[in-house]
Amino acid sequence: MPLAFDIAATDGRARTGVLKTARGEIRTPAFMPVGTAATVKALTVDQVARTGADILLGNTYHLMLRPGPERMERLGGLHKFMGWNKPILTDSGGFQVMSLSGISKLTEEAVTFSSHIDGSKHVLTPERSIEIQADRLGADISMQLDQCVSWPAERPAAQAAMELSIRWGARSKAAFGTRETQALFGIQQGSTFEDLRRQSSEQLLEIGFDGYAIGGLAVGEGHAAMCEVLDYAPGMLPADRPRYLMGVGKPIDLVEAVARGVDMFDCVLPTRAGRHGQAWTWDGPLNLKNARFAEDQDPLDATLECPASSTYSKAYLHHLIRADEILGKVLLTWHNLAFYQALTAAMREAIAAGRFETFRRDFHARHISNGKV
After folding, report:
1. Strand ordering across the sheet containing 4-11
2. What is the pLDDT of residues 40-59, one digit of tens each?
3. Distance between CA atoms of 351 and 29, rounded to whole angstroms?
4. Burial 198-213 (b: 16+ CB within 10 A, else e)
5. Which of 274, 356, 358, 372 could form a disulfide with 336 if both were Cys (CB 3.0 to 4.6 A apart)?
6. What whole-number distance in Å separates Cα of residue 254 and Cα of residue 344?
7. pLDDT above 70 covers what percent of the chain?
8. How many other C-beta atoms lie within 10 A of the C-beta of residue 292?
């Protein structure tokens, strides 16, 4: 397999290890900053790397629209284009089947999008999705094309989407073939129906993938319902392969998912929150627009090596956000990603030391006591 996954330690269902790719190692649990359109919004790749990120996520749908996959290939692929020499995982465009349902048409063969930019038509089949991800963009890890349903989902709709995702998964695998340095992940679907997720998992294993994702969560079901699905969903996937929970989430979501056997995450939350004046900390989120920070001379977190976290006062960050200065968005985004990387590093350390449950309990209690779950 193009990915070697070495699990170094377990603590309950939590695991820590290393996912080895041709472009470098990914320490797990891992959080992938989202670089939707070949950029992690507001930051340079050097700033992102300084947070400790081992891997980024790119988005097939957005890059398909602009600058376009063929142009990306002519320019040397996504890594060269954005100046990031570590691993990249690309989303297949499947999430946009749900999120952009108003401007897309779904059939057995493909999904056809009307561009939100200029209205032009774009057809995405499983085969075209793989071509864009693996051949044009040069992703280290590609995702099968799937159909994700919003929540709440009626069982017939959830089952139909899961079954279509399996058929598309088989087509994605056939198009991907066998590659020496690139990997393909399958995506478990089934909404909140345990038997559908079991069926999805069994059929994904028959197809055979390099890793497996848990899809269809963080779509409105809430933290408690998500955890209920994660009580069983990761265990349906192979223990010797990486498990990736797509689109999640808040720090408490990451901690609870790791406790249930998840290895990889991505989410726009830390970058989006930073652009809107919110900083994530060990005590939960802080709204830097709040007047109580106007004369607060303490930094966000003096223990983090990130300059945005340890150098600038909350008073200064408050001023930047209130004045709508670009630097405020940059610094809070930088801090949030540094915090997320510090969180995953702390979880890796706790698992290796056999004290993850203590870490989890303390983290949860700290958030509860501050009313920030």
Report:
1. 4-11, 14-21, 24-28
2. 999 999 999 999 999 999 99
3. 10
4. bbbbebbeebebbbbb
5. 274
6. 8
7. 98
8. 11
Phi and psi angles of residue 107, each rounded to the nearest 5 degrees, phi first: -135, 175
Q: What is the pLDDT of residues 104-129, one digit of tens each?
A: 899 999 999 889 899 999 999 999 99
Residue 271 host element (H or E): helix 269-275
Q: What is the pLDDT of residue 369?
A: 65
In the chain the beta strands, taken as DSSP E runs, fall at 4-11, 14-21, 24-28, 30-32, 56-59, 88-91, 104-106, 111-114, 121-124, 141-143, 183-188, 211-214, 243-245, 264-266, 278-281, 284-287
Q: In the beta sheet, which residues pair with residue 10?
A: 15
> What single-letter DSSP state applies at residue 109?
S
- DSSP string for 58-89: EEHHHHHHTT-HHHHHHTTHHHHHHT--S-EE
DSSP-derived letter for residue 121 is E
Q: Which helix (H) or strand (E) holds 353?
A: none
Question: Which of 169, 171, 364, 86 minimizes the C-alpha distance to 250?
Answer: 364
Amino acid 367: pLDDT: 79
Q: Which residues of the chain have pLDDT under 70?
A: 369-373
The residues assigned a catalytic role are 91, 266
Identity of residue 35: G
- How far is 67 from 324, CA to CA, in rounded Å? 29
- The pTM (predicted TM-score) of the whole model is 0.97
